[in-house]
Structures are given as structure tokens and as C-alpha cells.
Amino acid sequence: MTARPILEARGLAKTFSSRRSVADVVFRRPTEELQALEDVSFQVVRGESLGIVGESGCGKSTLARCLVGLYPPTSGQTVYEGVEFEGKRSFSDRKKIQIVFQDPYSSLNARMTIGQALREVLRVHKVVASDRVASRAVELLALVGLDADIANVYPRQLSGGQRQRVNIARALAVEPEVLIADEPVSALDVSIQATVLNLLASLRERLGLTLILIAHDLSVVRYLCDRVAVMYMGRIVEIAATEELFENPRHPYTQALLAAAPSLERKSRDDARSISGDPPSPFALPEGCPFHPRCPMATDHCAMVRPPLDEGPGESIHRAACHYAWAPPAPHHIPLIRGEENFR
Amino acid sequence: MSAPVLQVRDLRVRLSSPRGVVQAVRGVSFDVQAGHTHGIVGESGSGKTTLLRSILGLLPGNATAAGAISVSGRQVPLAGGRTKAVDGVSIVFQEPMTALNPVVRVGHQISEAPRHKLGLGRRAARDRALELMRQVGIPDPVRRFDAYPHELSGGLSQRVLIAIALSAEPKIILCDEPTTALDVTVQDQILKLFSRISEETGVAIVYVTHDLAVVAQTCRTVSVMYAGQFLESGTIDAVFGRSRHPYTLGLLGAVPDVSRGRTPLVAIPGSPPDLVSPGKGCPFLPRCSYAREECSRGEFSLQSLNHHQATACIRSDALVGAVGAAEADAS
Hints:
The complex is a heterodimer. By secondary structure, chain A is of the alpha/beta class. In chain A, 29% of the residues lie in helices and 21% in strands. Chain A has eleven helices and twelve strands. Chain A has helices spanning 22-26, 60-68, 91-96, 114-124, 133-143, 160-172, 190-207, 218-224, 242-247, 252-260, 300-304, and strands spanning 5-17, 33-45, 49-53, 75-80, 83-84, 97-100, 178-182, 210-215, 227-232, 235-241, 310-311, 319-320. In chain A, the strands form two sheets. In chain A, strands 6-7-8-3-9-10-12-11 form an eight-stranded mixed beta sheet, with helices on both faces. In chain A, strands 2-1-4-5 form a four-stranded antiparallel beta sheet, covered by helices on one side. In chain A, helix 4 (114-124) packs across helix 5 and helix 6 runs parallel beside helix 7. By secondary structure, chain B is α/β, with parallel strands linked by helices. In chain B, 31% of the residues lie in helices and 23% in strands. Chain B has eleven helices and twelve strands. Chain B has an eight-stranded mixed beta sheet with strand order 6-7-8-3-9-10-12-11, with helices on both faces. In chain B, strands 2-1-4-5 form a four-stranded antiparallel beta sheet, with helices on one face. The longest helix of chain B has 18 residues, at 184-201. Classes of the chains: A alpha/beta, B alpha/beta. Chains A and B meet through helix 7, helix 8 and helix 10 of A and helix 6, helix 7, helix 8, helix 10 and helix 11 of B.
């Protein structure tokens, strides 16, 4: 990549400790630790849109919160235009990266009108002169395609799609360079989803925004993103340009995810690539590759050695964390035989 | 063809609410044959859940219903406020975690119906429960029999719910968004399980969801529900491939699909009508780009186009050339 990245994650890791009860302390039970993120690194170029997909509990929302600064990472850094964020972010730092949350119902203050909510942000961050605040709020509503009279309305009077637009307007009020959208449409009805997705696409174009879209829904990411990162158990297991990833997935987990996604166009299901079992408990990750207990092509090597996120031969933009992403297993690697535990 | 297991005829359900009487279901008719899976697609508030409750015979106390529902030839009582589901119908809910009793071992929850409904003894009911757990693909059923719901993952709890649904030997299983709360890879496993169950046991499945792609992969036939009515019904190929209703076409063009690149999405303008005062004419009229004056008059119900498809649109001839974005892209 030639352009200088606007945002970079360098080895981000985040560990949560489970809450200890009095009994745990008395009986000296060890603290359980949950590794939500492990060594997550990627770069985003200005104006690009990066999709982050994975199943629930894979760490995608934790990643979003670390990038915005809502969680301090356990180790690693978020780097913005070549400068590390250190410690608590300053007011001006916080303006640069903004986030839109999943649930449009709980992320607005029920006791504030939409206008009040927007004006508060504008005043606190001194985005415009105080006599311009009211008119700027109306401009923001227009930016996301809402009428000016919405400003006098309370959140409960709006539909889910309208609220999500308000959330986007509020995030854009401080004129961020990077917008992180955490599952922006998964709480919305199908016919409404398109309006919000199209809004995000057009805002990106009009404002030159850099977009990080977090979703469990592959179709949403395919529609909006230039590049996609697939996460499993707190790690990025594959990252590539969108078309490359969807047409030529290298990691068995990505292949399984694509095979499992229901589609209107694909009638026959690719059963060979579907996987059995549930994701492992994040408190007890398996040794070696975290995907090996569910992987159809796992060998004894996978059960012992954790594969790094390696680049493919000759193509520096496609990376996958699988020993066999670009080469078949060596003859001395024995396929894992699994017992009854693997159900139909 | 044998007589359908489920017959719904001109079902109308009104729910009284502080805002007035909500016309939740407005004239729905359909049949499902044994061993078939019928999908019902609709957005929130379209009346899907009220329709399912009617089939179960469990309408809420504020409901008044007209029309007729029969399950294997027996009439389902449509009085509101009943507390006992009709025999032969089971339901699988969306949230497996909240649908299970958290303080009862899952094995006992599965063996409840065999013991009390089918009259099996304790030992026989336990064997039946273990057999059901095996049938729905729960690994190590003997150990899992004594587990509590919180010890199971979302996918396993949903399998337990399906085992419970099967335990009373139903003729029909109703599914209310059973995979919406699950991850894609687990959803895939559960959808395959449903196909296998209907093949093996001949049970009829009514599958309600908002997800068009899920319906396309699990069901043989589908009805598109909007504002308490069916706007289009037919085989999957007909309804999704050669849709003859503007709402179905709108939905097909509004959802992104994994197998499709960046075909632009077109949102359906406006919002569904208020079912307290739905107004006359076609319910989709205010949002429809094909609307003409005659669309604002009279009642709209499904009219057969051919053996495979029925639509409520009186201008369906104008839609012959119009294809959903799905097909346009595939060709």
C-alpha cells in the first residue's frame, strides 16, 4: 500500500478478568481471564472502507471500542496519522474517530429532543460558534436526509431507521475523519436497512470519510467495503480486498462462513465446507490454531502450532492465518481424527 | 395430493388496544401439506406472530378472531385467552435462552410431553427424550440430559427446543425466527436439521422470518406478508424469481446478498400502514411505484396466476418484465 494509513492498529490486545465473588477470594480460586483481542494489527488508508466480520464473541465490538478509545487496550496501540494515542485521549483526539452503535433505541437519550442531543455535541466540542449551533444542527439532519422539524421530536417518536440516521448525524457532528459503525443495520427491518446502508455509502463519498464497518452479516460488508477482515476468537484470521476474499477465500473458517451464509442466488449448498460444532469458550481457547477443533482440514500440526497471519505468495494484500492457506499439508502431518463429538 | 395437514381459511384477528382495535390479521388463507415447509416472510408488525398464535390456539385475551383453522381436519378454537395449545402443533421460538425454563434440567423439559401427554412411564419417557436429543444432533445426550439451560450454547439450546417441539409427536411445527439469534455457521446447522426432520418424520413446518435468503434455502413455498395480509404466495422459484407483486420486488431489491457484488440497493420508500385504521384499497398503495387509481378501491386478496403463484396485485401484468435484482444479476 502506497498511501499513508490514517488509522493503524498495532498488536492490539485486550484481556478482561471475570468478576470475582467473595467466595472466589475466600477459596483462592484463580481469576479467569478472557482474551477478547489478541495481536490485532491492520492499517486503513484515508477514504477506504474496511469491513470486520465474525460471529458473536469474536471480539469485533471490543476492537471497535479499543479503536475509539472507550476501552484501554491491554497492550498494543492505536495509531492515528502516524501518531500513537497514549493514555486518556484528549478532546481533540476524540473528535477524529467516532462510532455509531448497533441499537438505535438505547443509544439516544430518551429525555432529550433530537435537536438538544445534536446541539449538546456541537456546544461541548465547540464545533461552531455559539450563534451557529442551531442552524448547524439542522444542517446535520439534512446531511442524513431528515427534515428540520425532527429536531423538536423525542427519540420515541421516531422509527428505528430514523433514529439510526440521528445517531449517524450525531457522530458526524464533530467532523470526524474515521467513522466506525458497529452493526448499524442489524436491529432494523429489511426494507429500512437499505436506506441506512446507502446513506453510509453516500456519506463516505461526499465527505471523504474513512469507514470501519463491523457486522456479522457478510452481505452487508460485501455491499459497502473495499477490504474485509475476518475475525475468530479475538484474532484476525484473514484479511483481503473484498472481491478477493469472497471469490478466493483461503482460510477454512472464511470458507465455512461463506458456505453457511444463506443466499437467494445460490440454491445448492456447499456441504463440503460447512462446519460442525460451536465456537469454543473464550475462557478456554484450544492450543495451537483456535479453529482446529472445528476445522475440516486440521492436522496434528494445527493442534500444536498457532499459525501467524501470513501474506500469500506474491500478493501482499491477502493475508490468512492458516498453515495450509497457500500450501497443502506436508506428508508427515497427520489429519486429526475426530470422534462422535462431531455431530451431523 | 392428500388433504393438507394445516388449512387456514380467511383468518381475521382483531386485537383491542388502548389506541383502538388493531386489525392484526386481515383475511389470510393457506394450506400446508405433510412433509412440506412453508415460509412466511414479513417485516415487524406485519402480523406474523399473531398468525402463529392463532394456529396454536393461543390468542391473547384481547383478541377476537373470525375464519377457520384446521389441523389434520380438526378445528382449532379461535377464542382469545386460551392457555392450552391445540394437539398436534408445536412451536420453536426465536430466543432459545428465554424459551427454556432456567431451573429445570433440559432432559426433564424434553420428557415432560412424552410423560404427561403421551402417557409414558418415567423410564420410557427418559429413553424417548434421549432418542430425541440424538435425533436433533445433541452430542453426548446422556450427559446433557442433566444439564441446565445456562450450561448450553445458543446452538445447543435451540436443538433442545426443537427436541421439545418434536416430543409431543406434532403434525405441524411452527418456527418463529428460530435462527435469528444464532451465528451463521450455527444457523446453517439448524436449518439443515429442520430439512432432515421434515424429511424423516413427515412433519409440516411453517417457517416465519424476515430473512428472504433463509426462506429461499429452507422452504418449498412462501407467502409474503404485509399489513396483516398475504400479498404474494407460491413456490420459491416463482415468488423470488418471477415476482408479480411490487412489495416482493421491493424487498428483493432492498437486501444485499452474499453472492452478489455491489448492485445498488433500492430502499422501499415510506413505512407500513397503521393497522388501527388501515384504510381502503391495496395496503401497499402509498409506497408503490406501480399504483394506479383503481388500486385505492375495494379489497385485495390473493388471485391465482397459475398453479405455482398467486398475487394480490391487480396490476401484476405490468410487472411481467420487472425482475427482482436477484434474478437480474444472476442472468
